[in-house]
Amino acid sequence: MKLVTKCAAALLALGMLGAATPVAAQEKIVVWWVKGFYPSEDAALFEAIKKFEAKSGIKVELSQYAVQDGIPKTVAALDAGNPPDVAYFDVYDFQVLGKWAFEGKLEDLSDILTPMKDKFLPNTIETTYLQNDKAKKRAYYGFPIKQQTMHVEYWKDMLAEAGDTTIPETWKEYWAFWCDKAQPDYRKKTGKRIYGTGFPMGVDSSDSYYSFLTFMDAYNVKLVDDSGKVTVSDPKVRQGMIGALRDYTTPYTKGCTPPSATSWKDPDNNVAFHNKTTIMTHNATISIAAKWFDDMNNEKLKPEEREQAKKNYYENIATAGFPKKPDGSPMTYRAAVKTGAMFADSKNKRRGKEFIAFLMQDENLIPYVEGALGRWYPVTKSGAARLSFWLADPHRTSVQRQFSAGTTTFEFTKNWKFTVLNNENVWAKAMNRVVSEKWPVEKAVDEMLARIKEVAG
Amino acid sequence: MKKLVTEAKLLLIGIPVAIWTLLPIYNLFIFSISTKSEAFSGKLWPDHPTLRNFEIVFREEHHFLGFFWRQLGNSLVIAIAVGVLTLLVATTAAFAISRLKVRGGRVVLNCALLTYFIPAAFLAVPMYKAMGTYGLLNNQWSLILAMITIASPYAIWVLKQASDKLPFELDEAARIDGASPLQLFRLVYVPLMAPSLVAVGVYALLLAWNEYLYAFLLLSNERDVTLAVALGLFLSADDSPWELLMTTGLLYALPPAAIYYVFKRYMQSGLTAGAVKA
Amino acid sequence: MDTGRRGRPVFRVFKAPVSTAVLPHIDAVHPGPRRRLSSWQSWGLVLLAPYVVVFAVFVVYPVGYGLWLARHPASYVALADDPVFAGSVANTLLFLIVAINFKMIFALLLSGFFVNTRAWIKWLSVLFILPWAVPSIPTILSIRFMLNPEWGVINQVIFRLTAEDGPNWLNDRWLALAMAMLVHVWKSLPFWTMIMIAGRLAIPRELYEAAGVDGASRFQQFRFITWPSMRTLYLTSTILSMIWTLGDFNSVYLLTGGGPADLTHVLATLGIRYLRLDQVDLAMATIVCAMPLVLPLVYFMMKRLSR
């Protein structure tokens, strides 16, 4: 018997050590949220959570994941019938939200969002008004908290070192500049094996399709009409796509973009830019510049590092827009509205909605958005009106200008099936066909258009 | 002369083997003693080696290292729990099958081997669902139990093979002297099987320490995950703290290596006792 | 533990007369080829119970659920239509056939190397186990960083020596797959070498000495002494390794993440990909498709090992 009791005692001890079950009978909500790029983003979120817990007496059980892990974990949780109460990841809107709404997996949030409808900027909350095929209705199935658009970031000091300070403003000349002038000049001057551009091309990233779709916009390609019908049979669409894909893949084939770009995840083009492997990159937020702002204020860094960060942010890095379109007209940008959701199977919906409503209040949402140091633009009129923040430095001013000039929306706001296409990343697949498998551009475009028709048509 | 040639031939094998084995680990080490700029320069030894990275990790000074000690502790607790409990489950099962010749023992052994039918990586999502049904999600027990399930088949097999080698006369003698099964287990079986038991326990411990996929799926909260999962989070960092990742990785790699070397004597004989059949 | 007069352990608690009194009764109720006390049998069941419970709760239910999720024929059609699936099957087969044989042959050869009693070889064998003992994430990520085409150590060295850019290790389908196989071999070779060494050590030295006296060459010694003794162990190890390798998720996932554009996926990593695509039924269907590969291997192992 002694052995058995010994084992039982050991088990009990281990159980007490290892188990994480809380003893308190306090009410709680489970929140899954993306891990911020900077401490200040997360700090603002934690602050809002703390205030909510103090006000409502409810415990918030927060789990944070990397952006590309959010969807697999949510899918597993949905399948197990055990989703969180509230969840937000930067890629929800692109890749899954429309589909989940259609399949009836999301909870209707109209009761908290309709009353606050008027505080939103145009083209923001409309994107969360989605079709639920199970319940046969349209409603607000997600809560918008911030938005993003495409920017170009480049190192002014690297260009100065290369001796090339005038950047062309027309399409073809612009891309040729980085490839045929900046890169060879810099390499000759310094002997370092750097690349002129950093084109994100990884299948497992959202930067790749955001950037590609921006190129597509430059060629005035419209994949859906306003009613959501797919227009890929139009020969003009095919021509535009071929142009866009060719222009997007040429830097890689010419050796102007790092070879590892085809397996980049979202942070990797940032990484390549930060360690000056690339002179320029296009990115869907100004996270690249903002990182240096964050470092500038980071007390844990040495003073010289902070000085360098300050120099980088204010002097060395530039945030700019795209060049003029190939047809000479000014570039138009698409904005993506970042949306969180609650699920039909969530356990504590009432309290979860309280949390969402709380978070959406200006005194919580504005610090959260601004905690991202300009990486995200507000969706509320009050947020956009805070010019003291948005005109504070050249990077944010550039962002503000782009948004004020008006943006367009993604295809999936009209046809939810495009979220499936984004999720499987037909765009990056086509790029990889061309650069890794050496397909001719026309063939890759035909395959891509066929797949779009198959999924969304 | 012949001795020299043989020595040269052996070195010709030995040196490539040494480089092959140690290169990735050396790279890990180099990254951890380099500053960020030097880490990417591809040098074989940094010009200015530094211990600053270790300081950052130990003091949890980086955004992604906020829970380093807690997560290290989680890894440790889970690994030890898996090691001990797998040992318990496997030893009792092997004893019952091999020594007590329990009816249905062979069936159970076949069932255990059948768990290889679907390799662990495939079972990850159904396991997630099962844990959800049992209400164990976000609880470290889900990972512990999942790892016990994965480690047990091999453990039982090794122990059964090893115990088949023990002469049955010992059992008969004990029985004649009036021993109960438990006494046989406790006083005869366990002491004789000690080397294999240590080996199996360490094997299960290493398996649990090294596990990524299940830890990633079954655990959520940053406070509850193991260090393996936390390392994965680094890959989504925007400022490429690869040298910190490698430093944390090195620290994460040291305990299992140390444990293995402490028990090395048992490992080699214990794990292979089952494999070698005359 | 006491030892009695004859040097055998004495068990103080249990008294002999009680057991013999019980014995005839039990024999009458449970006649069988072996005489057993029923309490022994019941203890056997009790001791077997923990594993049976673990099996029922954590194997039967998840496997059953997985199979149930994979019940739609539509999943298999979708799977067949997906070019990534076909590619993954090809990759997996290549992995199994090439990587495992490569690994086992090396394990066999290296085991001969490591039984040597020189001091430096003994030290090398101690270091040799590191890849297996040390966790995958830091080491495989370390290899991934080494292979980075821009700033990885390997290409930097190549550039320094040849002024040419090194190959794009992880972004070309076949190179990346080859690297994943190498990573797998790197990680698991020590374990199998250890097994092979144990096998070699079990061969009596007299056989080699006698063969040496008879003038046999080293190759002949291998062919007529070593190989016949090691043959079954080699085969068993190869089969077991195939089963384990089929489930090797880390080597591919941590090195290439499925490779450029899902080109280096193997069946083990495909599950996570379908999870990301919110197609859980396809993930389960993949498992069912992998079963014909595993079934004969497991059956073979079961026959061998449950003797």
The count of domains of chain A is 2
Question: Helical element count of chain C?
Answer: 14
CATH topology of the largest domain in chain A: D-Maltodextrin-Binding Protein, domain 2
- Quaternary status: heterotrimer
Strand content of chain C: under 5%
Measured by DSSP, the beta-strand proportion of chain A falls in 5-15%
User: Structural class of the helix and strand makeup of chain A?
Assistant: alpha/beta
List unreliable stretches of 5+ residues of chain A.
Answer: 17-24
Write the layout of secondary structure elements.
The complex is a heterotrimer of chains A (457), B (278) and C (307).
Chain A (H helix, E strand, L loop, with lengths): L1 H17 L9 E7 L4 H18 L2 E7 L4 H10 L6 E3 L3 H4 L1 H6 L7 H4 L15 E4 L4 E4 L2 E6 L2 E5 H7 L8 H20 L4 E4 L8 H12 L16 H20 L13 H7 L3 E6 L3 H10 L6 H14 E4 L15 E6 L7 H11 L2 H9 L10 H4 L2 H4 L3 H11 L13 H7 L1 H10 L5 H16 L1
Parallel strand pairs in A: 1-2, 1-3, 8-9
Antiparallel strand pairs in A: 3-11, 4-5, 6-11, 7-9, 7-10
Chain B lengths: L1 H31 L3 H4 L12 H7 L9 H31 L6 H10 L9 H10 L6 H25 L3 H9 L4 H30 L2 H6 L8 H8 L7 H21 L1 H10 L5
Chain C lengths: L1 E2 L5 E2 L5 H14 L8 H32 L3 H9 L1 H32 L4 H10 L1 H4 L2 H11 L6 H10 L10 H29 L3 H9 L4 H29 L3 H6 L11 H10 L3 H26 L2
Antiparallel strand pairs in C: 1-2
Structural features, described:
The complex is a heterotrimer of chains A (457), B (278) and C (307). Chain A is α/β, with parallel strands linked by helices and 457 residues long. Chain A is built from 21 helices and eleven strands. Chain A folds into two domains: 26-149 and 336-404, D-Maltodextrin-Binding Protein, domain 2; 151-334 and 415-456, D-Maltodextrin-Binding Protein, domain 2 (3-Layer(aba) Sandwich). Chain A is 48% helix and 12% strand. In chain A, strands 2-1-3-11-6 form a five-stranded mixed beta sheet. A four-stranded mixed beta sheet of chain A has the order 8-9-7-10. In chain A, helix 2 (39-56) links the parallel strand 1 and strand 2. In chain A, helix 7 (156-162) packs across helix 8, helix 12 runs antiparallel to helix 13 (303-316) and helix 20 (426-435) packs antiparallel against helix 21. The longest helix of chain A has 20 residues, at 171-190. Chain B has 278 residues and is mostly helical. Chain B has one domain: MetI-like fold (Orthogonal Bundle), CATH 1.10.3720.10. In chain B, helix 4 packs parallel to helix 7 (140-164) and helix 4 runs antiparallel to helix 9. The mean pLDDT of chain B is 85. Chain C is mostly helical and 307 residues long. Chain C has a two-stranded antiparallel ribbon with strand order 1-2. The two termini of chain C are 33 Å apart. The interface between A and B is large, with 48 and 43 residues.
